[in-house]
Amino acid sequence: MLKPKVTATREMVNLDGLWQFDTEPNLGREPWAGRLKTSREAAVPASFNDLFTDAEIRDHVGWVYYQRTVRVPRGWAGERIMIRFESVQHQAAVYLNGDLVGEHTGGYTPFDVDITDRVSAGEEFRLTVGASAELTNETIPPGELTVHEDGRREQKYFHDFYNYGGIARSVWIYSTPQQHISDITVTTDRAGSAGIVNYTVVQTGDAPVKVTLRDESGAVVAEGEGSEGKLTVQDATLWQPGAAYLYELTAELVDGGVLDSYSLNVGIRTVEVRGHEFLINGEPFYFTGFGKHEDTPVRGKGHDSAYLVHDFELIKWIGANSFRTSHYPYAEEVLDYADRQGIVVINETAAVGLNMGVVGGLTGKPPFPTFSEHYANENTQAAHAQHLRELVARDKNHPSVVMWCIANEPASNEDGAHEYFEPLFDMVRELDPTRPLTYAAVMFATPDRDQCSDLADVICLNRYYGWYIFSGQLDKAEQYLRMEIEGWLKKTDKPIMMTEYGADTQPGLHSVWDSPWTEEYQTKYLEMNHRVFDSFPQFVGEQVWNFADFQTGPGIHRVGGNKKGIFTRDRQPKAAAHYLRERWTRAGNAKPTSTEPTD
Fold this sequence. Notes:
Elements: E1 11-14, E2 17-23, E3 41-44, H1 55-58, E4 63-71, E5 80-85, E6 88-89, E7 91-96, E8 99-105, E9 111-114, E10 124-132, E11 143-147, E12 153-157, E13 166-167, E14 171-176, E15 181-191, E16 194-203, E17 209-214, E18 220-225, E19 228-233, E20 247-254, E21 258-266, E22 271-274, E23 277-280, E24 283-284, E25 287-291, H2 305-317, E26 322-324, H3 332-341, E27 344-348, H4 356-363, H5 378-395, E28 401-408, H6 417-431, E29 437-441, E30 459-462, H7 474-491, E31 496-500, H8 519-534, E32 539-545, H9 575-587
Parallel strand pairs: 25-26, 25-32, 26-27, 27-28, 28-29, 29-30, 30-31, 31-32
Antiparallel strand pairs: 1-14, 2-3, 2-4, 4-10, 5-9, 5-14, 6-13, 7-8, 7-10, 11-12, 15-16, 16-19, 17-18, 17-20, 20-21, 22-23, 23-24
Helix pairs in contact: 2-3, 5-6, 7-8
Family: Belongs to the glycosyl hydrolase 2 family.
InterPro entries: Beta-gal/glucu_dom_sf, Galactose-bd-like_sf, GH, Glyco_hydro_2, Glyco_hydro_2_cat, Glyco_hydro_2_CS, Glyco_hydro_2_N, Ig-like_fold
Keywords: Glycosidase, Hydrolase
């Protein structure tokens, strides 16, 4: 799934900006049949929920509609013409001049709509996009939708972040030649000091394929012919965490001239799990960083390049080397930037909420078995598989991505979990045999209860000893955290890392005692966890929950959202940020050692 870009043979026009906007119309009116009769306009990209002051819009359950006119560039006659949606949450219906031309389910992966036979170069068309953020037990992420007798729709969702909706990322109209490159897959390896770049090019037609690899200076370092091949780069410069180096691979279809051309960045690096070690380029790597969210004021989950740059600057300032795309695939621009900045990524699909035990805790509803016809059934599994296929297809070529995370906090402790997840793990290993696989295990999934650890290459734990369990009792929390990790080491010989640990912290709240919610407690909580991590050489990483405070749904257990951020929602540091900076900058990519924080 190639990201659209401008090349010598391709063009694209950005459709971001203000679109006409309306919520689901009154019964009987079809908004896509004509122009929307509304004075409202909504920004694209952005979630629609926080843009307006009308509570009925923010809390709307059902379809919303975006509309604008688009002019096809006059030079595109004879070209293949596509519309690209980077993210429509969570279901999309696309109409061209009133006709349905495309649909997609899955809010965090892109989709294309071919409109070649429906438009003409130089002419305008009316583009209407329907978006629905409704979730059911057969969607990813899952939820529960209730339609009341009066027609009112009520949405419950089983994840602890706000269920934003709308067109969250950019929209493009782009052209390709009729005979074109439709996909490229790149894998890399090393042979001594040489770098190996294996490539596969998928095309329409049968024109000869030429491949050229250039270094960062633009010099050609390897060339190949054919739709599959291996390029060898002598004395290759590797892509390293914190020291990115990117080659440029250009694939061309050549038949008397260049019919199509597409270039992508290539980082030569290897990833391997060996015993208790996670290796990048054959060297032990220790993850330091965060779980994050695509979440900012007003924009919601709308992508924002200014926040992208600033967030990465804060990641580098604090000395972190990685993050997890919790709990869904992030915008492609994020991974492109991680490639260029040398930040390591655990890439996660949107499978969060597959756990009726957690649901019961959040809603008070007595849970039924998670893996059953009532909840995570065969249709859910099929939707989950499609999400994984689209994730791997989109992000397989990013050197920053070193591991796929199949789900966040599933009920891996329940009967039926192994049968649900084993086919998904097998499928992803077949799609991409080069990267390790994992899932982030919920607190219920202790070593004696978890049923899926044999499927994962790395044991990733989300644990909150000292917050949800033994809140304010750090001595007891430390004892039980240590006992659990010892239990995991007895059960498995795989690397172990913490993908979530954190404490809600109200910025500006202080105490001379270890009082929960204070900035002092957040720091003491982290110190306790680190003493435990540092005592186990089998431990390969720590990713704090969360990078920044983020919006959640309504509930008296949250005041203004989740406050576990090391930074506030507007990216101001809490006291713990300075403690982490001292710890992580001292360690680099190696395993830290516990010391008292400096003043």
